[in-house]
Amino acid sequence: MAGFLQQIVTGLGAGAIYASLALALVLIYQFTGIVNFAQGELAMFSTYVAWTLVAAGMSFWLALVITLVVSFVGGMLIERVVIRPVEGAPELTIVIVTVGLFIFVNAAAGWIWTFLIKDFPNPFPGGALELGAVTVNFSTLGVLGVVALVMGLLYLLFQHTKIGLGMRAVATNPASARLVGIRVGWTLALGWGLAATVGAVSGVLVAPLLFLEPNMMAGVLIYAFAAATLGGFDSPVGAVVGGLVVGVAETLAGAYVGFIGSDLKIGVPLLIILAVLLLRPQGLFGRAAVERA
Amino acid sequence: MRVSAIGCTALLLLAVAACGGRDSGGETAAGGGTAAAGQCAGQQTTGITDTSIKLGGIYPLSGPASAYGDIPTGIKAYFDYVNAEQGGIDGRKVEFVVRDDGYSPPKAVEEARRLVEQEQVFALFQTLGTPSTTAVWDYTNQRKVPQVFVATGASQWGSNTEHPWTIGWQPDYVSEARVYAQYLKDEKPEAKVAALYQNDDFGKDLLGGFKKAIEGTGIQVVAEQSYEVADPTVDAQMGNLAESGADVFLNITTPKFGALALAADAKNTRWNPLHIVNNVAASRTVLEPVGFENVQGVMSATYYKDPNDPTWDDDAEMKLYKQKMQQYAAGKDPNIPYHAFGWAAASSFHKAMDAAACPTREGLRDSVRNLDNVEVPMLLPGITMKTGPDDGFPIESMQLMEFKGERWELIGEVIDTRAQFGPPTTE
């Protein structure tokens, strides 16, 4: 029983990591209606910025603030320079551009910082909470806490602010949004900036656990997609619940389902994506898109 | 719509890959090849003249295994040094062309074709990684191009008889596994071993070799867990292994996962097994991010001199290496062991060319398969390169080491697995 509970805790820890990146995916989808394959790599790049500042002697928290600002500006710049030229193009075009961005950012990080793994300071204490026979690391609790906070902020942004309303309008119908006076270009840039900021939070959270290297986020991205698909691409709560469910399901399946074992563990999120797309395409917490016939 | 967009992206990527793999035919072989005269009559001299020799290497300069991208830096420094100060290898200036395959086998094949057919290299000197090398070796052997001293320890480079043009260099994973087995037999004859291994040829080769080597002893493998290179963490696997209650943990991983497993072991205060990490993940650059205080007493095995070990401070070869690295690879840290690895491999190639009867592709192929205890100064004292008709493994000896303070310390004697176990087999 203790073993089972420990597996669940391990799964929640992994799930919190997936959820943190899934939040950035959900955010950019809300703003722009596209799936950004480069989100994980942008998060990794932001983390390197933070690492460089800390390595230069800056305190962690100051470095974090600067990193978030740099990421926000960087995200907006990418929208202006890379995405703007293909704005309004078919989804496939934009998806391809984000795939290109993925490859470019990954290679650039390797070129600048090399591919050697680096340790990243952990903002949370190193110890663990002992609950009977179950060990919960403080860093796991810390990641869960920050993820919950970001989720709450995003929920407020989406549901209770004018910006949130505007961006939902832009994502749904850019032409009509423009006609009612919403500055579509700025809204899209804002979306990229905010998503890059949330991604940076995710990168800084996971780097102490996974070690910083240019491919740090590549594995996480697959699971984050599964989390966002499961929870619904338009729901921050869904992304977090989805991430936790994916993390726990994957860990338990690996430990207790004999033929899956560790070998097929990575297939679990893909099965989840497939099952959700077949049975409930909008995800657990998502709203089904209604289109006029 | 979105699903179809993503699907189309995947298809497009596939199509690009398919186009990249087109066959350009065999004309270049007939048109571009040259042959020798005299006692070496009829042998291939493509890529080699009296004053030059052109080599091609394929490494993951990008992608998941790009930490190995430092190896060609050490190789280049060695060849630049030999070119500038010794007039090259036997009067032949070495040109070393490096290509990036991103650790992707299809790209490795493409780059191998480009090197052989367009660059007209004399030989492939090192392809890195078991998957990429396996993808390339049918091609090199059909074209009769030497593919020497490949940077992977799979036992098939030595045991396979259908690919005479391909040969390994570093101790194969089976030999390495035997070193650990031998140590446990002596020190912990009742050991219960938990193993984490990469789910591919590399991981299975080492684990298989280990299981074979402990047959008939009191040592048992009580738990094993695998991971995929795409996995973000190995925490779940480590949790499962800890529950086995094993007293030895065998860490069969590539660098990043090695670090993740070392960190997970350090974090778990309830499970404190003897931690053995395999050589490919034992670089100091892997242990440093984990924190040296967390990896005290971890064991591994090695075969070449570690630039961080003060034992070699007065060693002639190590001094030469550090000085020439500064001169020919300015700005690169000579203490990174991958640089020393590259240097050692390049110097081994130099020795093999010196020993070749003919300066031809056939000459190189025969030379690397007939090495008679060739000394390579960068290897540990007591370790030499030896091959023969029944033995395709240049290096089969290793020495154990333990991490103390901020570096590895060699312990015990060099273990010659050839003497202890005979040629490697996995069956």
TrEMBL record, chain A:
One annotated GO biological process: amino acid transport
Nucleotide-binding is among the record's keywords: no
One cellular component term from this protein's GO annotations in UniProt: plasma membrane
One Pfam family matching this protein: BPD_transp_2
InterPro entries documented for this protein: ABC_transp_permease (IPR001851), BCAA_transport_permease (IPR052157)
The protein's name in its UniProt record: Branched-chain amino acid ABC transporter permease
Gene Ontology MF: a single term: transmembrane transporter activity
Cellular compartments annotated: Cell membrane
Bilayer disposition of the protein: Multi-pass membrane protein
The family this protein is said to belong to: Belongs to the binding-protein-dependent transport system permease family. LivHM subfamily.
Source taxon at top rank: Bacteria
This protein's record includes keyword Cell membrane: yes
Entry keywords, A to Z: Amino-acid transport, Cell membrane, Membrane, Transmembrane, Transmembrane helix, Transport
Listed transmembrane segments: 12-31, 51-73, 94-116, 136-158, 188-210, 216-233, 240-260, 266-285
From TrEMBL, chain B:
Keyword Signal belongs to the record: yes
Domain Leucine-binding protein, residue spans: 52-404
Transmembrane segments: none
Family: Belongs to the leucine-binding protein family.
Protein name: Branched-chain amino acid ABC transporter substrate-binding protein
Signal peptide residue numbers: 1-20
PANTHER family from the UniProt entry: BLR6548 PROTEIN (PTHR47235)
Sorted UniProt keywords: Signal
